[in-house]
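Researcher: Before we compare anything, I want clean individual predictions. No alignment, no superposition, just each chain on its own. First chain goes here; please echo the sequence and then give the structure tokens.
Model: Echoing the first chain and its structure:
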Amino acid sequence: MKPLILHGHHTGPNPYKVNLVLEYLKLPYDYKLWVLGDGPKGVKSAEFLKINENGRVPALEDPNTGVVSWESQAVINYLLRVYDKSHTLSPGPDASEQDRVDYDKWTAFLTTTFGPMMGQRNWYINFNATDNPDAKKRYEEQCLRCFDVLEGQLAKSDGKSVLPGGFSAVDCHFWPWLRQFDYAQLDVSMYTFFQKWFKGIGERPEVKKIDELVAKEKEKQGIKSM
């Protein structure tokens, strides 16, 4: 089997989701880091736009099938359809319709609500050119509302996984975004089930391997941290 090619960015949470799925499915892959902008190695460069017309990461090239995918949810769905034949990370053939709906709705909650709220909070805390207290307050409130929702769900598994049935691709979607709570200056100390989940996922060898891989690729490609 030829290695797949994952295109990412050293700080972006969305490529990290795909890293996790690739690691858990034990698929061989090469990891190529890009930087922001339209310069060399930039996601807006002509070279990268040939891979993803939207100029965003992640993007995935699969030389075994000729398929190119982008947008993290589409990439992960592709990997699960093609390579997760034993349903390691996805609902199996015996799953109930409620199980399938739960998988879809919690994934959608992250990709359409929780993730974007965290992204906006990160922007106004760390990057916006002028201080905007109203925006900071709004996105703090929205992020914490999402943490409230997630805490109730995590209680069903005693903080082991987002879905009560065990670790799945849903956890892969959530982990890279929620690990940024310090960066977003959010106090999440009151969420006991989240803290248990966060600690458990962070101790998994796949997570540590990805952190080491990203650091190695940054050094190899001469990419400086933001």
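Researcher: Okay. Second chain, same rules.
Model: Second chain and its structure:
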Amino acid sequence: MLVQRISQQALRRAAFQQPAAFSRIALHKIAAPTSIATSHHQVQSRQAATQALKQDDAYQILAKQRLNRPVSPHLAIYRPQVTWYLSILNRITGSVLSGGFYIFGFSYLVASLFGWHLESGSMVAAFGSLPLLAKVGLKFSVALPFTFHSFNGIRHLVWDTGRELSNKAVQNTGWAVVGISVASAGILAYL
């Protein structure tokens, strides 16, 4: 870095003291045009032809230029990975669990104002009157987001310790979280 600054300063002094010795071609060969600031020579120049265009013509030119531009990569060109889905599901389950908690908590607080019966006894009676399949399905649908978010949180805590960070380990732990989550949600649903 120091050598580069010294050489740039030397070139600037030489160009300022003897401007005739430095032509445009020589400056391009010696140093980058942006590193030389002289008041006598214009180092970088660009000739551009312009013409007056109507707005429609300008838009058509722009549309043709856009056809030649490269298209940015999109998710559709990549092969889906388990880590994508687990990341998205972790966020969704976290939002669903926290949103459900806040909605139920707020509903419980205002239930007496609206005449709702959200006390424990009435909720147990309402749940007990459901058919067995509905009970299992309802418990599974509540247990699955909870178990998945919990086990995936443990997976992230393991990553925070610096373990299981290779590509293969991330894939394996991802599938393990899916399996353990479904199995534990099933066990909780049948309790």
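Researcher: What stands out in the second chain?
Model: The helical segments are 2-17, 24-30, 55-68, 82-114, 120-128, 132-160, 167-189. Additionally, The two ends are 70 Å apart (CA to CA).
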